[in-house]
Amino acid sequence: MSLVSKAAVLDGIEGQFHIREYEVPEPKQGEFILRTEYAGVCGTDVHMYYGHLNTVEYPIVMGHEFCGKIEKLGSVDIVDSNGQQVKEGDRVVIVPGVSCGECYYCKIAKTPTRCSHVQAYGFLPNREPHLLSGGFSQYVHIKYENTSFFKTELEPHIAVLTEPLSICVHGFQRAGGVRFGSTVLVQGTGAIGLGAIAFAKRSGAAKVIAVGGPKRRLELAKQLGADVVIDIDDVKDPQERIKLVKSETKGGRGPDMVVECAGFPGAVPEGLSYLRDSAEYIELGHFTDVGGVEINPHWHILRNNANIRGVWGSDVEHMEMTLSIIEQLELPYDQLVTHKLPLNRIGDAIQAMSKKGYSLDGKEEVIKIAIDPWQALANQ
Amino acid sequence: MSLVSKAAVLDGIEGQFHIREYEVPEPKQGEFILRTEYAGVCGTDVHMYYGHLNTVEYPIVMGHEFCGKIEKLGSVDIVDSNGQQVKEGDRVVIVPGVSCGECYYCKIAKTPTRCSHVQAYGFLPNREPHLLSGGFSQYVHIKYENTSFFKTELEPHIAVLTEPLSICVHGFQRAGGVRFGSTVLVQGTGAIGLGAIAFAKRSGAAKVIAVGGPKRRLELAKQLGADVVIDIDDVKDPQERIKLVKSETKGGRGPDMVVECAGFPGAVPEGLSYLRDSAEYIELGHFTDVGGVEINPHWHILRNNANIRGVWGSDVEHMEMTLSIIEQLELPYDQLVTHKLPLNRIGDAIQAMSKKGYSLDGKEEVIKIAIDPWQALANQ
Amino acid sequence: MSLVSKAAVLDGIEGQFHIREYEVPEPKQGEFILRTEYAGVCGTDVHMYYGHLNTVEYPIVMGHEFCGKIEKLGSVDIVDSNGQQVKEGDRVVIVPGVSCGECYYCKIAKTPTRCSHVQAYGFLPNREPHLLSGGFSQYVHIKYENTSFFKTELEPHIAVLTEPLSICVHGFQRAGGVRFGSTVLVQGTGAIGLGAIAFAKRSGAAKVIAVGGPKRRLELAKQLGADVVIDIDDVKDPQERIKLVKSETKGGRGPDMVVECAGFPGAVPEGLSYLRDSAEYIELGHFTDVGGVEINPHWHILRNNANIRGVWGSDVEHMEMTLSIIEQLELPYDQLVTHKLPLNRIGDAIQAMSKKGYSLDGKEEVIKIAIDPWQALANQ
Amino acid sequence: MSLVSKAAVLDGIEGQFHIREYEVPEPKQGEFILRTEYAGVCGTDVHMYYGHLNTVEYPIVMGHEFCGKIEKLGSVDIVDSNGQQVKEGDRVVIVPGVSCGECYYCKIAKTPTRCSHVQAYGFLPNREPHLLSGGFSQYVHIKYENTSFFKTELEPHIAVLTEPLSICVHGFQRAGGVRFGSTVLVQGTGAIGLGAIAFAKRSGAAKVIAVGGPKRRLELAKQLGADVVIDIDDVKDPQERIKLVKSETKGGRGPDMVVECAGFPGAVPEGLSYLRDSAEYIELGHFTDVGGVEINPHWHILRNNANIRGVWGSDVEHMEMTLSIIEQLELPYDQLVTHKLPLNRIGDAIQAMSKKGYSLDGKEEVIKIAIDPWQALANQ
């Protein structure tokens, strides 16, 4: 008897999410069917809802941060990206981006996040051959050749964080890693900013400064390792913040690394002004175009002998690194997922993450919302 | 009998150069007196003339790109930075920046160009204890502890290029070197841009594209290794230039490295738009503040997975690397010095390099002007 | 009418090469048939002949350094690894190693030469499904998924060098590139050693020292850029060679990089003794096990603050870098191929490269032997 | 009234330690007198006792790992290497190696641990001008130009660990840092091995394996972060250890990094055999010559695509990085100092660390012995 999967289908830009049912196909050789446990709602999903990604076609089943259990294997020889054999019932985390493995960026530049033919679960139109390819669905058909995934014994509400946290791991790697004993400043305290805080400390930073807000996120920042938090609601003037940041660093030189996870154009010149000379600036926040900003090439780049890295996504390597760390359960990663919602509340999640200032149902503070496609649909 | 040195003293911002005479002191233990052969006129000298460097005090004897012969040693045990013993009569190239060797940037960050207490020949006020510390003088008193210099057998009109050319060597080093077989684009065809062209090819680039002008410089660019030259007078529209550049690269992806040596703010977003994804942008041009420019953090930095390096000056290491290469005399480096002028024509040199569009005496095309302090003064 | 291909089949360890004929199959979707122009004989082929590679199964058609023209495309959409569309008649260079693109080493460590499931043209048993998979054959069936190749307009006797030369490019890359202005010493003057000499200079070395022999190879070393050659027949004592090498370097410190391409165990401690402190040692020579050697961890590794890299093979990236450079035709690469032989002289080639001290037909000095499978068979 | 300092003077190879008294001089401009709190006994001190360092002259006051309080400043303008002003009474950690700041290795290679003219506190003959230059003394005259030191508020029994722990920080830095989420294996569980264990985890390792002994050290290894400990007394056969190590790593591939802190020649081939392909081997253990060992260049270096780093000492940078971390007091660093002894028990300390198998007074397990020169002399 074949399975049926409920999925949340977005019908267009700023459209409706419809809960539809699809028959789950039989997986072929090398493929498998995943029974989704959680799928995180990402800032990129918000941008797709508002039509900011011009490559997206609608209708679409979004959801690229997801994990679950293998429901049915198409063949018995399937191994994860660590070479471990998997079996039905195993929990796995899927790497959403499927790079072609053949193009210049995959084979020669070895930066597969810029693959010329990348496709990704959660970014494909909801029609054949892409049905059941997004995480906002009870089952996902894992079928694209070169799909990477990792077996894990993490609980699913932590495993689901692997993808968003891997972005900061890519960022640190691009900067040659976090200098041991250094001071790292993170701009922005959303899910990626909080991950950067946690991992900066875990990668060797002696001191971590978080600039963000609101209060509840700054509380969690402290639990994840931030030594100093600066609330942008308390210190509204960027010049004041620059002075304050400098005063929190050795010799007043400024942080050794600044990680931009705010995604606000003005954060860039401000963050470059925090930096000590000869240091690292990691740009993670502007994954979509939210406008330009004036910088001064002399003061912001050349005179401070700066290194700036733009970091696009993450690849299998960064997922593996991330998972290996969170599997140690050393930090309260589980506090990052603040809400678990059914399929028919994705629209609410998107509103919370855009127009409603990270509040949901009027009272709660949203960090990461995970969709549980098996949760009973909400009355609406 | 003591020596007397003529020197060109600039009396203030946009002031006069006065030829003054100074008694040359006896060098002490570890010091020496250099008989200057050539001192190059740098874009930074132009900026100092116009008062764009707020740390400079006047009157001043400028000149930080200089070489000459050791006239008198203060002690017999003096060695150059390669550990070679020197004697009177030896030709040496002076490293103008004297870093303290003690501060955070010298000892810990190991980026001495950002030394907290740097002083530099050619940047000090013309009074005790700094008399005879600039290259626009017949003799220079090499006296600051930690001064670095290199013995060389190069002819002086080539040796004088070591310092300006070392800037691009620092730039390439910061980017992890030039990728073997890559395509490098250089924006700007002044002395540093031309050096970047020559050294990109010598460091392993397969193809070098120069964007600059005017014609005569582009001719020299070709002699130094440029495979393609784009005259900004011929292709005036930046969007056209972007298309043209892309079309000159493999798969239309864009260059693997872009080196900004133009020093014009608009060059930065244009250059970032040339770049292939996951590539290197080296900012060498904005050694002074000539204004801001709008960039888009998404398109110019993050989406193309870019690496951007601001490169401040050069240190002993880069001077050593540069000298080792130009000593091989493989390229027509001597064509970079287009004019040799006496001390009382520094003002003309500065005019040529600022208001007069690189023309001197109405007809010639200026690249690098070298001051020969022993040349008979011009009638004026 | 279907094509027939002559191929040289080695029947076992130290066995015979038989010239057999095979029907050339129709290429399927994504595949093509290559008409081989040249296939180089590599030291590894010699080792396979003598049974030193325990993974090899016989009978076998060897030949992994090869280029030719596309005889027949299996589909019209085939592009090379630079994304360039190819058509029948185009000349291409094949990357022999076909990494799986899926395993830990391919996706996570990003060192595909250590792929867990690598297969390679020229290393597979001569039976289905591997018929016509080695370069010592008139036609090669290019069929393994993930096969990389590059279109080129180089003449074939130069194009055939891409693979062996790419080994040194991998070596330099692993060491962070050749330091600009540095002194590089190459141990061994076979095909790879000569390539290392040429490319060290082209990558930015100021001075290249070659230690090897015999005379004719040292002559070619000079033409490719060696500034100093040391003939091991003239200077037989390693201690003498160490002194001599040191005397050829600045301050007697030793070379900044030593590249081991001799493949003789004693070369390793000798080469480590050449090195200046804090420098780079690249081990390229021991691609097979030719025995052990005593080293002293204190003197050879720790005290000189050395960096040592073992370099296994090359991947698509290094082939692309190499091809981009040799396509510039700046050096007499064509002198590396000293002999072009028919299929039934592979045995002679192997004898020349092992027992006969690089002499063929009693008089000539062998560097690289290329097999031309279309040349008339020799009378034997 | 001038101060008098007791110091422990070693009179020759395998000689006696005599407690002598010296008048403490007045510090000059830029100098200061340190009142020693602790001076650690290092394996190098043991080697100097036995005459294994051929550059050492006797009699000597050893002790290069030391901290204390500033007793008297020679001038008021003295700042530490972070640019912080110091005053009398401040606790400081001294960087023992004083590099010249001028030579090729200081300025050009930027690896000051290989400085051509290095001198170091604790390594100089006990005669003018070097009196009171070793840590095994109540006062040390901090007088060499370019001496680096750091102010700290750490307790002295932790501050004294900065120097030995900084060696592993140098090691990790040389390998490009510890890969985030990786598995690191440390060979040897002495003070440096234990530091490597602690810092590997703190630098981003997910899993740390320690191979060493005896039991008490392995217990401390666990407290400092080792996830797996392998007692070499339990698993005596290296081949067994290799199997066991592999079985403790993902996919049986072996550790991503192996740090050799055992200083036993056989550890080198064994450790290289643990390593996964394309990984990092850091050689910290052989700071003196304890003999050679056979390696196989094919299997140990080339075939596994290995990177091997010899790491000589540490410099100011590594001391700063180390201090910044241990100041966070996140781990039980204080358990590393197992014994605090008076000046006249240095001989006992050396016996414990050489002939007596790390036992002192018949019962205790020695890790790091710190000399407290103010402790009442033991009856002997």
Automatic annotation (TrEMBL), chains A, B, C, D:
Residues 191-323 form the Alcohol dehydrogenase-like C-terminal domain. Keywords: Oxidoreductase. One of its GO terms (molecular function) is oxidoreductase activity. This is Zinc-binding dehydrogenase. PANTHER family: L-THREONINE 3-DEHYDROGENASE. It holds the Pfam family ADH_N. It comes from Halalkalibacter oceani. Gene3D superfamilies: Medium-chain alcohol dehydrogenases, catalytic domain, NAD(P)-binding Rossmann-like Domain. Residues 29-146 form the Alcohol dehydrogenase-like N-terminal domain. InterPro entries: ADH-like_C, ADH-like_N, GroES-like_sf, NAD(P)-bd_dom_sf, Zn_alcohol_dh. It comes from the Bacteria. The keyword DNA-binding does not apply.
